[in-house]
TrEMBL record:
Matching PANTHER family: THROMBOSPONDIN (PTHR10199), THROMBOSPONDIN, ISOFORM A (PTHR10199:SF100)
One annotated GO molecular function: calcium ion binding
Keywords from the UniProt entry: Calcium, Signal
Protein's organism: Bradymonas sediminis
Tree of life domain: Bacteria
First and last residue of the signal peptide: none
Residue stretches of biased makeup (Acidic residues): 316-342
Renumbered residue ranges of the record's region Disordered: 316-350
BP terms from Gene Ontology: cell adhesion; proteolysis
SUPFAM superfamilies, alphabetized: Trypsin-like serine proteases, TSP type-3 repeat
The name this protein goes by in its record: Uncharacterized protein
A Pfam cross-reference name: Trypsin
Length: 466
């Protein structure tokens, strides 16, 4: 039998199968862990030995899994109305009965319809109510039993608030050595005691190391995991570990022989993956994504949102500095803050302003003192910004000033809309508005005769005066 650097065991309970005899003790990280014989991946539940019966409504729940060979029991944590955090080995087949990091891997994921989930403190109580899974998510970029033992279950329907309250996963703050946590799970309370399926809580456990910090003590804790001082006999597979504020730190993965320690799949190492799934679950459940997943509610999860606290679904980033325009205090990246920058959208560290009007030369192409971004004729100087038809194009560069569909050069009334080119300004046509081609043929004749008569009357009057 091969002897690995350290041996570990997963622990979902197969109802009716033989329990595994184990004893509990504390691991001392002041000295390296001694290699031991590998322990079989027995279908036996290492329950919360010494834990107290837990009836308080909260995020913890248990579920039964129809594996095709029997029924297993695992635990999980509700982190959103329809999303559960658990261990991957609770929802997927395993490749061997030994957990050897780098060699042991996961097999196919069980069908969601094989999972039966309940928030009842006693899973086998006649009053227990079950809900059903819609989807099961596991990491897509690896299947090693060490480092990838995490999963999310999306429910068919949102969990009623009167039955459970979600816990926030502590995604941005890694666990710290010496930090105290609380474990909750549905395992049996000791070797030979057939009382699994009852939720218990155990307080006062302590974090020994996190990820890379564990190098030198054990080679079987990856960068996405952390190491606890109490063994799997005192926790439950997939069950949550909670900090002093009730935030979930991880899902129980495995433990060494002799019940000397616990390894949890930490949520910080999977923060972006959890956030993505949480945003999708919120859309499926038709509720607003939790703040820890999408703080600003713009549909872009915090892990990739370039303005996580300011809604900006378009994610515009003009200077491509990784900070969205909606929250960037230097939009053009020229080292001058937006409030002081005379060209906030165009980089101009020299702030040159020839006209002295508060608009930098770099963003005033036509030199009229109006920034290009707001100039209605950015290529033609028009300091008055006159816009007769209110179409956003200044008269100085508007090819159809009255917006009647007739270009200025062809329009018989360029400042008054007349798409039919009728003589809409006939009363003042003499002063510049021309008659149209559709006007009566004698129109100009009458105008001419009238003028001649007026001039003739004037001459006759002068002669009489003479």
């Amino acid at each position: 039998m091969r002897k690995p650097s350290s041996s570990w065991i997963y622990a979902p309970l197969l109802v009716g199968l033989l329990g595994v005899g184990i004893g509990c003790g504390d691991a001392d990280l002041d000295s390296p862990i001694v290699d031991e014989e590998p322990m079989p991946l027995a279908r036996a539940q290492q329950g919360i030995k010494g834990g107290q019966f837990h009836t308080e409504k909260g995020p913890s729940l248990g579920f039964a899994i129809n594996t095709g060979r029997g029924v297993s029991i695992c635990s999980g944590t509700l982190i959103a109305p329809n999303l559960i955090l658990t261990a991957r080995h609770c929802v997927a087949e395993v490749s061997s009965e030994y957990v050897i990091c780098g060699e042991s891997g996961f097999g196919a994921t069980y069908r969601p319809s094989n999972l039966y989930i309940s928030t009842s403190p006693k899973l086998f109580d006649g009053d227990a109510q079950f809900v059903y899974a819609e989807k099961v998510y596991v990491p897509f970029d690896g299947d090693d039993m060490c480092g990838y033992d995490i999963a999310l279950i999306q429910l068919r329907e949102n969990m009623p608030a009167e039955r459970a309250t979600p816990a926030e996963p502590r995604l941005d703050i890694p666990v710290a050595r010496g930090e105290v946590y609380t474990a909750i799970g549905y395992g049996h309370s000791g070797v030979g005691i057939n009382d699994s399926g009852i939720r218990r809580v155990l307080e006062g456990s302590e974090v020994k190391c996190d990820g890379a910090e564990c190098v030198g003590f054990t080679s079987s804790v990856t960068e996405t995991e952390w190491y606890g001082d109490r063994g799997t006999c005192q926790g439950d597979s997939g069950g949550g570990a909670f900090d002093s504020e009730g935030r979930v730190l991880g899902a129980l993965s495995r433990g060494a022989q002799g019940c000397a320690s616990s390894v949890y799949s930490g949520v910080t190492g999977w923060a972006d993956w959890i956030r993505v799934r949480a945003v999708h679950a919120a859309k499926a459940g038709e509720y607003d994504a939790p703040e820890w997943a999408d703080s600003d509610g713009d549909g872009v999860h915090n892990g990739i949102d370039n303005c996580p606290d300011v809604a900006n679904p378009e994610q515009l980033d003009s200077d491509e500095d990784g900070v969205g325009d909606a929250c960037d205090d230097d939009l053009d990246g020229d080292g001058v803050s937006n409030e002081e920058d005379n060209c906030p959208f165009v980089s101009n560290p020299d702030q040159l302003d020839t006209l002295g009007k508060g608009v930098g030369d770099a963003c005033d192409d036509d030199g009229d003192g109006i920034a290009n971004s707001v100039d209605n004729c950015p290529a033609v100087a028009n300091p008055d910004q006159k816009d007769t038809d209110g179409d956003g194009f200044g008269d100085a560069c508007d090819s159809d000033i009255d917006e009647d569909g007739v270009p200025n050069g062809e329009d018989n009334c360029p400042y008054i809309a007349n798409p039919e080119q009728d003589n809409v300004c006939e009363d003042e046509s003499f002063w510049g508005c021309s008659a149209t081609a559709d006007a009566p043929p004698l129109t100009w004749l009458f105008h001419g005769l009238g003028l001649m008569a007026w001039l003739g009357f004037g001459r006759l009057k002068r002669r009489r005066e003479d």
